[in-house]
Amino acid sequence: MYAIVDIAGKQFKVTKDQFVYAPKMDGEEGASVEFDKVLLFGDDKAVEVGAPLVKGAKVAGKILGHVKGDKVVVFKKKRRKGYKKRNGHRQEFTKVLIENISK
């Protein structure tokens, strides 16, 4: 069984007992979260596509922690002008364990 769920504006294909690194969400470690924006729900028998959402489908998860992603280096340069600018950024994510997918 799997589902495509919208978490904070991004779409993830999730299955049970899977880890997802979603954009940072409010909540403490160990807190349970529920996502009701399910766009597609599939099991062994059939696939149900929502218009735009699948009615009654929910995905339950548990927040395992808040982490930072890899550093992205932003480098700007203008040739022959002596202009160089270097900047870095680390995006914050929330690690979520998908516990249950129900319809």
TrEMBL record:
GO terms for molecular function: rRNA binding; structural constituent of ribosome. Keywords: Ribonucleoprotein, Ribosomal protein, RNA-binding, rRNA-binding. GO terms for biological process: translation. InterPro entries: bL21-like, bL21-like_sf, Ribosomal_bL21, Ribosomal_bL21_CS. Signal peptide: none annotated. Belongs to the bacterial ribosomal protein bL21 family. It holds the Pfam family Ribosomal_L21p. PANTHER family: 50S RIBOSOMAL PROTEIN L21 (PTHR21349), LARGE RIBOSOMAL SUBUNIT PROTEIN BL21M (PTHR21349:SF0). It comes from the Bacteria. This protein binds to 23S rRNA in the presence of protein L20. GO terms for cellular component: cytoplasm; ribonucleoprotein complex; ribosome. This is Large ribosomal subunit protein bL21. Part of the 50S ribosomal subunit. Contacts protein L20.
